[in-house]
Amino acid sequence: MFEVYSSSFKYWLKKPKRITAEIVELHSKIREMFSLSNGSAGSRTISSMMTNSGIDLSRYKARKAMQHLGLVSRQPSAPKYKKANNEHLAVPNLLNRQFDVIAPNEVWCGDVTYIWIGKRWAYLAVVLDLYSRNLVGWAMSLSPDSQLTSKALLQAYELREKPKDVMFHSDQGIHYTSKKFRQTLWQCQIKQSMSRRGNCWDNAPMERFFMSIKTEWMPKFGYTSFSEAEHSISNYIAGYYSLLRPHQHNNGKTPNETEKLFFKAT
């Protein structure tokens, strides 16, 4: 129709496009966001982070730009878990995988994971609010005991200004079934719920958080010291995860922004 040879048209398609100041600025911003994520963000996360910062960027354009810049996300594949159905004799599974709640401070989840520091293991206990997936309490120790889990819970309780009618859900680890931890729950007037034994899907949001922090932030061979690990994890929780990292559960918004919008509406 336009009397253009197909070979000429194909050459035009492959011709490098002119680099403008706007493209350079956009690529610079994408590199900055990727760096803030410690090299973990994929195109969906980059797109949401850019949009949240006031720059409208589709996932397709984010993926093309990342390919051009050689930025590769290090997100892992989904893990496989065994299934089990044994509830705790004294504490039932009250949550029953109802992970979508309508307000902050209705349901908190907790769990403990291990972290390599130099020549031994350290342990991280966290408390997560299911509404926004925000980390509301955390603690580190060299022992995975009830003192560690109680410290994380009390931090959450104080930080959230002592809320009432909260349910706390966890697995059946001894640091959650112990007398000391259950006394801490009683003192805070928090109802307890527990996953079925060996069923990781009953506490899936916590499993997802630990997978995120280990693949997105932690060094492959661990930290050199306890203080280095504590500082790095604090930066991840307060400086990146809650403040900057968009969450699919929050429709691309960060945990802090999600809670801010909730309290603004109420």
UniProtKB/TrEMBL annotation:
Gene3D superfamilies: Ribonuclease H-like superfamily/Ribonuclease H. It comes from the Bacteria. One of its GO terms (molecular function) is nucleic acid binding. This is Transposase, subunit B. One of its GO terms (biological process) is DNA integration. NCBIfam families: transpos_IS3. PANTHER family: TRANSPOSASE INSF FOR INSERTION SEQUENCE IS3B-RELATED, TRANSPOSASE INSO FOR INSERTION SEQUENCE ELEMENT IS911B-RELATED. Residues 100-263 form the Integrase catalytic domain. The lineage of its organism: Bacteria, Pseudomonadati, Pseudomonadota, Gammaproteobacteria, Oceanospirillales.
